[in-house]
Amino acid sequence: MSTSGMVAPERILVIKLRYLGDVLLSTPVIASLRAVFPKAVLSMLVNPGTETMIATNPYLDEVLIAERAGSPLRQLKFAAALRRRRFDLVLDLTDGDRAAILSRLTGAATRVGFNREGRWRGRLYTHLVPVQEQPIPMIRQHLMALEVLGIPVAPSLPILKIRASDEAAAGAALGAVDILSGERFVAVHPGARWWFKSWPAARLAGLIDYIQGKLGIKVVLLGSVADQETAEAILSRVETGCRSLVGRLTLLELAGLLRQAALLVGNDNGPMHIAAAMGTPVVGLFGPADPRIWGPAGQGHATLYKGVDCRPCFPGGCQRGEQNCMRLIELDEVIPVVERMLGTPPERTEIL
Questions:
Q1: Mean per-residue pLDDT for 49-53?
Q2: Cα separation of 9 and 89, whole Å?
Q3: What is the CATH number of the domain that holds 327?
Q4: Is the pLDDT of residue 30 over 50?
Q5: Nearest-angstrom CA–CA distance, 28 and 163
Q6: I want to staple 261 with a disulfide (CB 3.0 to 4.6 A). Which of 14, 134, 187, 246 is the partner?
C-alpha cells in the first residue's frame, strides 16, 4: 500500500452489519479494493439474510455471515474463527458497537471504522473516518474509509450480479401475470422496515389506478412475504386489477424483474437500491431518511421528500400520527413525477 507506507495486505475483511440496501451500497468499496489489491483474499462479513446482495459479487473471495443468535460461547467461537483467518486489514463500514468489537477481535494490524456518535468504540480502530457534517451520499462515505489509508478509489454504482436463471424466473413470473416479454410495465414496491417509512396504501392504490387507467401501462405489485398484509390493503382498494407477485420472488429474481421494468415506485427500502443497481429509474418516496444520503445511486432518478423538522425521528418511532412525513407526500405530487419519468427520463436525480 505504497500511498500510505504500508505493506499491501494479503487478507482483507469488509464488515457491513446492516440491511439489504446498506450492504448493496457498500459494494463499490469491494470494487476499489479489488482494483488496487488484485492478489489479496477479499472477504465480507454481513448479517444473516443480507448475503444475497454479495453472493454473486465477482470481486469477493469469501462471504461470511455474522453469528447473531445462540450462546455467548457460540459468539466467542465465531470471533475466534475470524481471528484465525489472520486478516491484515479490516474496513468496518457499519458504524456500530458490535461490528467495532468484531473488528478489534480479528487482531488485524490496520482497522478502519466510523464513529459518528463519538462513542467508546472509536478506540477499537487504528484509523477513524472523519465525521462530515454536510449530507454526503452513503456510497461516497463508504469510499472515504479507503481514502483514510491513501487507497485510491474508483467511484462506481452498486454492483449486483444476477444469473440467467434469475432473469428467466423473473420473466416466467411476469408471464404468469400476463406481462409479455418486452412489454412495458411499472413496478410498485410498498415495503418498508418501519410503518413511518411507508406511503399510505390508499395513495399507492390511487397511483396504480392512474398508471393503469390513465396512462395505459400495466403495474406489478412487489414485496416479500412480510409485505403481504400491506399488499392486501393496497389490492383491496385498486379498481383496475393490479397484478401481484408479492412473496413469489427471491431477491435475485426480484432484481431480474426490476431490470426489465420501465420504472420502480417505492419507499426508501432495499428494493429501491436493487432497482438502481439494475439501471432502472426510481421514484423514491422518502420520509425520515435524507435522500441526499440514502437516495438511489446513479442518474435519472427522482425522490420526493418533505424534510420535516422532527428528523431524526423521536425515540421509539414517529409521534406525528396522521401528519407524519410520508403522509405529507400527496398523490397529486407523485403523479406528475411518474408521468415525467415514463416520458423522457430526467438527466439528473431530482429531489422535490
A1: 95
A2: 6
A3: 3.40.50.2000
A4: yes
A5: 20
A6: 187
Single residue among 85, 114, 147 that ends a domain in this structure = 147
pLDDT of residue 83: 95
Q: How far apart are CA 246 and CA 224, in angstroms?
A: 6
Scanning the structure block, which residue is given the C-alpha cell 456500530?
Answer: 96
User: Residue 308: its pLDDT value, please?
Assistant: 77
Per-residue pLDDT tens digits for 306-347:
877 776 776 667 777 666 788 889 999 999 999 999 984 434
Q: Residue 169: name the closest of 82, 255, 228 by CA.
A: 255
pTM (2 d.p.): 0.91
The total of structural domains in the chain comes to 2
Handedness of CA 19, 22, 28, 34 (dihedral sign): negative
Residue ranges making up the domain that contains 58: 2-147
Domain end position, chosen among 83, 118, 147: 147
Residue 156 lies in a domain: no
Ramachandran bin of 163, using left for φ above 0, alpha for ψ from -120 to 50, beta for the remaining angles: beta
In sequence order, which residues have a C-beta less than 8 Å from that of residue 302 and are 6 or more positions away? 281, 282, 283, 284, 337, 340, 341, 346, 349, 350, 352
Return the C-alpha cell found at 38: 488484485
Look at residues 80, 69, 31 and name the one whose alpha carbon lies nearest to residue 47.
Answer: 69
* Nearest CA-CA partner of 81 in 60, 54, 62: 62
β-bridge partners, 185:
218
Report pLDDT for 314.
63
pLDDT in tens, 208-246: 999 999 999 999 999 999 999 999 999 999 999 989 999
